[in-house]
Amino acid sequence: MKSVTVWMCVHIFLLLLDESASSWETPSALSVSLAIGSPGSPGTGSGPGAQPEWVDCIQASDMCNQNAYCSSRYRVMRQCLVGKEKEAMLDNNRECQAALEVLLVSPLYDCRCKRGMKKELQCLQNYWTIHMGLTEDGDMDDSSPYEPVAPSRHHDAFRLASISS
């Protein structure tokens, strides 16, 4: 978990450095490369078949709120998603698009929630603030807001099945 936190801090620093040298016209090469190869994103890990490490959305929100730049973009994104004209805001508003671009490479993009956690509702709100901006025509993407759970074997169920037969 510490390596993810350290990476996120370096990541945010690089984004701020990159942002100061570029404009909002197009995504920068650094932003795109970080978005594609960031740790914790699906498909990354330490080896073949490795499970990615997910950051809790509550922790990701706290990390974002500690950074003034990320925090301001997160507030903008929440405002963009409020109201009936959400699609028009996201498609036509440059500020909304810029906020979404920044948040795509933030810890919030790859965060997940745990079922039954204390602040599950807040965690889900944080998750959908980012992911609702990514959906097109109201279609939900196939990703789940919940942390992947490794399949577990129910030894008692197998034992009961053999007893009942």
Automatic annotation (TrEMBL):
GDNF/GAS1 domain location is 57-135
- The signal peptide stretch is 1-23
- InterPro entries reported in the protein's UniProt record: GDNF/GAS1, GDNF_alpha, GDNF_rcpt
Task: Please name the SMART domains in this protein's record.
Answer: GDNF
Transmembrane region(s): none
UniProt keywords (A-Z) are:
Cell membrane, Glycoprotein, Membrane, Receptor, Signal
Report the record's Gene Ontology biological process terms.
cell surface receptor protein tyrosine kinase signaling pathway; nervous system development
Q: Which GO terms describe its molecular function?
A: signaling receptor activity
Q: Where in or outside the cell?
A: Cell membrane
Q: Does the keyword Iron apply?
A: no
Recorded superkingdom: Eukaryota
Choose one Gene Ontology CC annotation of this protein and give it: external side of plasma membrane
Keyword Membrane attached:
yes
Q: According to its UniProt record, where is this protein mainly located?
A: membrane
Family membership: Belongs to the GDNFR family.
- Protein name from the UniProt record: GDNF family receptor alpha-2
* UniProt source species: Dissostichus eleginoides
Tell me the organism's taxonomic lineage.
Answer: Eukaryota, Metazoa, Chordata, Craniata, Vertebrata
